[in-house]
Specification:
Its cofactor is Mg(2+). By secondary structure, this protein is an alpha/beta fold. The chain contains nine helices and eight strands. The radius of gyration is 17 Å and the shape is elongated.
């Protein structure tokens, strides 16, 4: 049995379209031009405050407005976080298979805990997870290792695997001292070879078998 913790955005769900819509609503209110989806994907990973900081820098908005725009983004995104967000193909079947094999599952994301819980519930993912650590659950967020440590402590298995899609995830796993499995179809900015990883995969249909292969080698 293993404890397997997943990132959320870009790993379990494709949430970029909802993030884009919310960000562009806030930008419009601030008198700034909108962002295309590719630009928003480049901003994703560190949570809403870093995302907003990058967006403001790109639009030359005064950083004195940062706290207010972050608060507005949280409000707007919270109202429409599942309008366009979709679960990646094969995720639900893979989670069910992993649970059936006796593994315990959790989520560790830099998204604030409340919208993360809403997304998991609204998209039918919540029943598969025993632990959720959000970006505001602790005083720090990834790539600090503390959120991962908290997630794995809540699951209590001896073998720990972390699944993510980004540089933040790879670095958090490295700092936490756990094996990192890279989902290559998410929101990373770097080549796959540049991210430290135990293994990588591009489709969830193959993921349970990958886990079993890795565990057999332990």
């Amino acid at each position: 049995m293993a404890a397997i913790v997943f990132d959320l955005d870009g790993t379990l769900v494709d949430s970029a379209p909802d993030i884009q819509a919310a960000l562009n609503d806030v930008m419009a209110e601030a008198g700034a031009t909108p962002f295309d989806l590719a630009s928003v994907i480049r901003f994703i990973g560190g949570g809403i405050p870093p995302l907003m900081e990058q967006a403001m820098q790109a639009r030359d908005l005064p950083m004195a407005q940062h706290a207010a725009l972050v608060a507005r983004m949280v409000e707007v995104y919270g109202a429409e976080s599942t309008e366009r967000t979709r679960v990646f193909p094969g995720v639900i079947a893979a989670l069910g298979q992993l649970r059936g094999q006796g593994h315990v599952l959790g989520v560790c994301t830099n998204k604030p805990e409340a919208p993360a819980r809403h997304i998991l519930a609204a998209l039918g993912l919540a029943p598969y997870f025993d632990v959720l650590i959000g970006g505001d659950t602790l005083a720090v967020k990834k790539p600090d290792p503390a959120p991962l440590h908290a997630a794995f402590a809540g699951l209590g298995a001896e073998v720990s695997l972390y699944v993510g899609d980004s540089e933040f995830d790879a670095e958090a796993a490295r700092r936490a001292g756990v094996d990192f499995l890279l989902f290559t179809e998410g929101y990373r900015k770097s080549p796959v070879e540049a991210l430290p990883q135990r293994a990588r995969f591009d489709a969830y249909e193959a993921f349970p078998e990958l886990v079993e292969t890795l565990l057999a080698a332990v």
